[in-house]
Write a structure and sequence with these properties.
Number of helices: 3
Largest sheet: 5 strands, antiparallel
Oligomer: single chain
Order of helices and strands: EHEHEEHEEE
Strand content: 15-25%
Shape: globular
Strand order of the largest sheet: 4-3-5-6-7
């Protein structure tokens, strides 16, 4: 089901200092001190081409919100390969996790 067209308020969540995260958490995730989630609940690239998405992710380097790997276009993974931006956050309501592409690690917050 496409969820485009409706907005949610932008927000950022300040994380506890890295010492509270598990020691095995990668350096990329430990460097995230504030989690940012997009201000609109839509995939920016899918909207340009009339595509649909399943779930959304927000890049923690530049703040772009794009679709997940379950979505047909997999825009967020393409964004990682094009930019090298390593960490994303789920932009789904109720989900609180980060994913690091190069280290293939997940961290809940």
């Amino acid at each position: 089901m496409e969820r485009g067209g409706w907005s949610k308020p932008p927000f950022a969540i300040r994380l506890a200092p890295p010492k509270t995260m598990k020691e095995e958490t990668c350096e990329h995730i430990r460097q995230v001190t504030e989690v940012t989630i997009g201000d609109e609940y839509l995939c920016e690239e899918c909207m340009k081409v009339g595509g649909t998405w399943v779930h959304l992710r927000t890049c923690q380097t530049c703040g772009v919100t794009l679709c997940c790997d379950t979505s047909p276009a997999q825009h967020m993974t393409a964004h990682y390969h094009a930019t090298g931006h390593p960490v994303i956050a789920s932009a789904e309501p109720g989900e609180r996790w980060l994913w690091c592409y190069p280290d293939e690690q997940i961290a809940r917050y």
